[in-house]
Amino acid sequence: MAKWPDEISLKKFREAGDLEGDAFWNNVFELHRDKMQIKNPKIAIANLKKIFTATFELSHEKGFQAMSLRDLSRETGISMGGLYAYIGSKNDLASVIAGVLSQTIDQVIGGLVASNLPAAERLRAIIYGEIYSMDILSSWYYFCYMELKGLPKDQQQSLLDLELRFEAMLIGAISQGVKSGEFVCDHPELLASQATAQMEQWHLKKWKFKSREVDIQQYAAYTYDSLLLCLRAKDEDGVEREVGKEVESERLNEALPETKLFSALN
Description:
By secondary structure, this protein is mostly helical. It has one domain (10-252): Orthogonal Bundle (Tetracycline Repressor, domain 2), CATH 1.10.357. It contains 12 helices and no strands. It has helices spanning 10-16, 21-32, 41-62, 69-76, 80-84, 90-113, 119-136, 138-146, 153-180, 188-204, 206-211, 216-231.
C-alpha cells in the first residue's frame, strides 16, 4: 500500500505525520519542557492543550498584545500560579508556536529535500504538504501571520526566517527541475515567493473558499498546476505537460476516492 508522498492525499499525509492528536501534543511538550516546572507529561499535556487553545481564541477576539495572563487564566480555568508553572511570560507562548511551525517545516518539507523524487513530484509533495499542514495547524499558522508585528524583534525575525526557510526548499525543487530540463525558470526566488503567498491564502481566506465550495484538494491541485504552468513543465520524454488535466472539479467527480487528485477552478 502506497504511503505519503508516493500517494498524495490528506488521508495519507495524516497517517505519515505527527501534526495532530497525542503525538502532536507530546512534541509540543518536549519542545517546551525545559521552560516548564511541570515535568509529568500526562499532567502537562492536558494543560498545554488548554493554554494554547485559549491563546488562539483570545488572540482572535482581542489580539495577542491585548491579551493578559489573567485573561488566559480565566479562559483556561488554571490559576495564575498554575500558569507560571508552564509559561514565564506571554512571549514564551509565541516562542513555542514558532518552534512548532519550524519543526513542522523540517518534518514535512525537510524530508522531501533528501528524497529521490523527480522534480515535479517533489514540487507536488511540497505544495500539497504545506497546504495540508496549514489546514491541520490553521490556528498556529494564523497566529504567526496576524500577530507578527506585535512580537519582540527577535521573535519577529524567527517567524520571518520560517517563511524564508520554506521558500528556500521550494527554490531548491524548482532549481532541481531547471537543472534536469523539466522546468524553465529565470527567477526561482520570485516564483517561490509568489507560490508561497498563494498557499497562505488557504489559511487566511478559508471563508472565501468555503463560500465558493472549493475544498483543500481542489485548491492544492490548482496551486500546483498554476506553478507548473509558470515553469513550462515537461515530462520525462521532454513533452510539455498538460497543465489543468489533473484539475477538474471534485464536485463533478464525487465517485472518485479521496486518494486521487482532483482539480477545480477552471
